Amino acid sequence: MRIFRSLSIAFSMYSSLPMPQVEWSKDNMKYVMCFFPLIGAVCGALLFGWSLLCQYFQLSQLLFAAVSALIPVAVSGGIHLDGFCDTMDALGSHQSMEKKLEILKDSHIGAFGVMGCCFYLLITVGLYAEIGYVNLKYILLITITFVLSRVLSGLSVVLLRPAKNSGLLHAFADAAAKKKVGLVLIGGLLLCTAGFILLSPIAGSFILLCAGVTFGYYRHMSYQQFGGITGDLAGFFLQLCESTMLVGVIVGGRIAG
Among 80, 65, 182, 184, which Cα is nearest to 128's? Predict the structure, then answer.
C-alpha cells in the first residue's frame, strides 16, 4: 500500500491528474520520486496520440507545435513552468544569494519571469514546428525525453545539495529512501538511453549530450547562485532540459538524415 500512496502523492504533486487523497507522511513519501517519471510517460503518450491525430486530419504544423508545447504544461498543471518563471525572476534580479532565495519564494511573477516564459514557449513552439509530426521516429524520441527530464530531475533531488532546510523539495529529499530511489531512477536513465539508441543512435546521442550539458549547467548555476537546489530550480531544469533535448532531436536527426 505504501507504494500506491507514493504513486498517488507523486501524481498529486507533479500533475493535474485527479488522484485519491493520501496523507503526506514521511513513510508515504519514501518512493515518490520513483513514480515522477511516469508523469513524463503520460505526456509522451498524449504527444504521440496528438501527432497521429494531426497526421489523420492533415492539420497544420503550427497547430501541432502549439498544442505540443502546451501538453506537458497542461499535464503538470504548470508547476515546472512556475519554477522556471520564478528562477528567471531571481536570476534577472542580480541580487545577493539570500535575496534570490526570497524571490523564489515570492508567489508573484515579475517582468523577467513573464519575458522568460514568453521566450521559452515561443522557442518551444518553433522547435516543435521544425520537427513536425510526419516522422514518427522523432515523435517517439521526444516521448522518451519527457521521461528522461523527470528521471534527471528526480536524481537531482536525491543527489544534489538543497539550498535550504525547508520547503517541498527538502521535504521530498528528506523523506526519500535515497538508495532505493536512486537505483530506480538510474534504471530509468538506462532504459531511456537504450530507447534513444535503439530508435536512432546518432539523434539519441545528441539528445543525451544535450541533457547531460543541461544537468551540468543546472548543478553549477544552482550551487553558484543559490547555494544548492530548490523545487523551483528543479522545475527550471526540467523545462530547460526538455527544450534543449528538442534541439538534440533536430540536430541529431539532420545529421542522421
Answer: 65
